[in-house]
## 1
Amino acid sequence: MTLSLSVKIIAQKIFIIRKKKIMLDNDLARLYEVSTRRLNEQVKRNIRRFPEDFMFRLTKDEFDNLMSQFATSNNWGGRRKMPLAFTEQGVAMLSSVLNSERAIQVNIQIMRAFVKIKEVLITNRELARRLEDLEKRYGNHDEKINIIFEAIRQLLEPPPILSKPKIGFNSDKSV
């Protein structure tokens, strides 16, 4: 069975919440080609396999913050409960709960995506350390070199999360 999921596609579905890399239940369900309801039912039946460091439910604030990062919210509407967030270990555990060939193949691709993200983060840390070493050695020589160091440092920083204004009717009469 060949699976046409790229690491890049999967990596786009990995978010950082509570300083953990996670994937949401609905994204995982789509990848596994099962309904979110079915995925959550299987998790509930095997809840002992999913301690807090493997899986947790998002709070309303976490969910709203995550939603503000997306241009459209059409894919996320209509939920009665906040989504479940699965850490890397929780995703690995899902392959034993969803015992299908598809689940096994998808999990292999997801684990590769998590490894790739770790490699990128380690590489960025190593580049930052090397930049500091170069700056200590050559930083006092020239203003132009300092400008280059600052530009490289900014490239290594993750982009800031900007809060977007809410769209829609505002019921506040003072506006």
Note: The mean pLDDT is 77.
## 2
Amino acid sequence: MTSTNPTTSALTGTWALDPAKTTVGFRTKAMWILPVSATGKALSGEATIGADGDVKGTLVIDAASFDTKNKKRDDHLRTGDFLEVGTYPTITFTASSGRAVGDGLLEVTGLLTVRGQSRPFTLQARVKGAGGSATVDVEVEVDRSLWGMSWAKMGAGLKNQVAIHAHFDRA
């Protein structure tokens, strides 16, 4: 980005993720209709917003932390059919650019790395900042088959809704 915008100008600087105040969740459907949801944990993250509005940053999620409240399903999520956490313990989004697309709304582009495979990924984030803290809220659909996770039982969807509420403090 090359021009300052109201969304990022007040947030110029370096930010550190507070994992304790950050939530990660996903939703999908099993057998076409049964909702399945899970929560996970962010491990680390940081962001830098330049005076010109340029956005850079990372968010690292613990792939083994997803909890659906069903041990058998959680154990299966950790296998090679899905996240293969023994080999790939983290999921990482690395933001390489961002631009304001509305009041408090940023379009962020970067790479999403799952199971050791990085793919270009764009998302929209609602950003709110006050004083020394900022929150970033994202809801995005992810087609897991793009990262080699195509296992499905009785019509389970390959697309998952991912919701992240990230809390950052000025570094």
Note: Residues 71-77 form the longest helix (7 residues).
## 3
Amino acid sequence: MGVVPQQTFPVESCLVDPGAQLFVFSDGVFEIIRNGELIWSFEELTLYLSELVDSRSEVLDRLLAHVQELHRSTELDDDFTIIEAKFP
């Protein structure tokens, strides 16, 4: 994931429950363009992820397949970068 050199970001912390999952991703995971229009939002991504996590399926594989289906191509317009962290 790219960052701008010399850029500063706020730092925060929180407690994470055992069994929790954390997803860190680029905007290319949810900014899906088809025919010049944005067709999927951040809110729709978070809802989709929460449904996948609850189903205990292969989250990242299913997410990528869904995004490719939305875009109607395996070649996306932007990077698709996502990291899944599972907390035991």
Note: The chain has a mean pLDDT of 89.
## 4
Amino acid sequence: MSVERTDEELCRAIAAGDAGAFDQLVERYQTRTFRMAATILANEADGRDVSQEAFIRLYENAHRFDGRSRFSTWFHRIVVNLCIDNQRRNRWWRKMVPLLGKSEEGDEAPIDPPSDDPGPELEAIRKQAAGKLQEALSGLSPSQRAAVMLSVQEDLSSREIAAVLKCSEATARVHLHRGVTRLMKTMKEA
């Protein structure tokens, strides 16, 4: 009977050259990494690219993980940094892609929640709401968007968000509060 290794143990194993450990971490984190990147960037294609780059960085820099924080905090920091870099490079080219619905290739988007065939009316309402939410998210600053996504999708505490964003805990709470407040205001106006 084998005991499942922790993320931290897998990261150390990657640093030691264990390709199987890398595969395990990719399997554990690929969906949420894509979801976070696609949401922060408001673009599925960019989210896919950033996700892939994040795993390349993980593989190349596993030896830099020092264990002072949880692996997830360290890895989320890589993802957020790559998202911010992507936004700086592509400021002029931001497409809105709804969180729910079809991907650009026409396949079901991997970030769709499971559905029991809601019917066309409910599906239309869901897509409209998702579009409004994505539009509202795109109106947030990158730090606010990252704080909201880390809190909602990854269920991180203010302290963990602060570690990912490399800011004080108070600043992380401000980003989160302002982001949520602005989202609520925007969604009520929509």
Note: The chain has a mean pLDDT of 81.
